[in-house]
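Input record (Table S2, row 594):
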Amino acid sequence: MCGIVGFIGHKHDAKDVVLNGLTKLEYRGYDSAGISLFNPKFRSFDIYKDFGRVAKLKELTKDAMISNVGIGHTRWATHGKVTKENAHPHYSQSKRFIIVHNGVIENHEELKAQYLANALFYSETDTEVIAQLIESFSETLSVENAILTTLKLLEGSYALLVIDTESPNTIFAAKNKSPLVLGQSEDGVTIASDLMALVGYSEKYIALADHTFVRCEADNVTMYNLNHEILPTSFLDIDLDEADADMGEYQHYMLKEIYEQPSVVRRIVQNYFEDGDIKISKQVLKDIKNSDRIYILAAGTSMHAGYVGKYILEELVEIPVEVHIASEFAYHTPLLTEKPFFLMISQSGETADLRACLMKTKKMNYKTLTVTNVKTSTLARESNYFLELFAGPEIAVASTKAYVAQIGVLAVLAYALSEQSFDLKKALTDVALSIEDFLSSQDVSSIVHKIITKRNCFYIGRTIDYYTALEAALKLKEISYIQTEGFAAGELKHGTIALIEEGTPVVALISNKEISSNTRSNLNEVIARGASTIKISMKKTSHKDDDIILKDVHPLLTPMVMVVPTQLFAYYAALERGLDIDKPRNLAKSVTVE
Ligand code: M6R
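Output record (5-amino-5-deoxy-1-O-phosphono-D-mannitol complex):
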């Protein structure tokens, strides 16, 4: 949560680099935005900031002078209300030091009491403590040592950019837990929370490790550990394409990403299947096979993919699987079996709740595999193994194509672990075709009216459809703000059916042939109580009056297809309500705080 960008260079205007970067990082938080730019006329730094979006910041800075140095921030508020004062950049008491920060300083109250009792604070943020500490230590130490001394006191997470207004040709950076990547080119140095912000300005990048401190000048980057010892640098090529993050002909990223799903599934096939073989390291397969239980840890949508993964793994591999909410597991670990294996699922690879789990499992010396969309992410780098989703950048806060990709990759993993006679490559290709067929032939915008006119909505399903119901409900609530619950269809009658009244929308998901008549009975029970129903089924489970009938796919892969109409329901419900679909209120794409 929160995105930071800094630039120091020759050719580009820092304002352009930082604002373009912040626009791409806005998915990380969009409560407020700010920038500090060197003003060559007065040889000082100007700060522009306010609550609201980067678009507003662009307006605020439209007359700013061309500058070669700047740092910026887009905020997801953690400490302090959404106000101009709490927007970054923050400065020290004398305004000598200017900083932007992504993360949470957990001991900021203690640091304030111990070191800064007399300091004048300008904001309610935890971040400001960092600027104040640096200034206070700089009275007796060199600037670099003042920053290092400060860093050693900080508990929590930070990706940090610091400007010393007395040395305008340098940006200092530091990282612990929150992501930070540094890109370099002949034009200068760009440093940001995500690789996307570097695209167009750098050809090479380095993902900083925790406890790294960096001095960036236009032509020179020096990295240190917190003991001020120089670290080696080894850059990698940036292989992202700007077009990947472009909205193209679509009105919203979410819609584009929904429509990209068939090609995402095909990309998984291309990347994981080679000459009849599956490209997953033999070692990870061996480690999983040697375990007596797989523990899947994840949050939100990724956890719903985890439930489907459990279903597929147990079915194909016959190893028991447990799925746990990451934020719970991290602090209330269940009794583990003798030989557990941990599987983390995360689109971003940056989710702090999962990182807390990883720290814990590492401490216990257990092996971990992360399934993620971002190969440069913290979890990808810190786990023993990782599998890439190949979904391409997912910009909309509400996850769609990453969810489908997660199930696809988990299916590939399960398949590689098992001895199956069916052809998964073909089965996944059928999934791509089925999604494509639905997207090109059905218009759900008229059905969605049954949902949006109501204050609440229910999704119901049994077995594998229950997991789709959970995901469908999350999608609808997070972008349309309609209170929605996903229920195991058989569970409704044990209490929740009391909420059904005249016109309450209930969407039934019916893809499991063995149990479809039971789900239909549950549907009749709510119809008898006035519910307004929508039925989504596969061809083989369909009745002729079902609202949406999808082309059949392998029974274990139906969630990859069944979820697609529900994603569109959420999209059109939010559209009808005139809401900000790609950036729903209070949320952020990458949840880097616990
Ligand atoms: O990046 P992750 O997959 O680890 O993120 C987990 C959740 O925060 C995420 O899935 C969230 O629930 C999305 N808003 C869902 O659309």
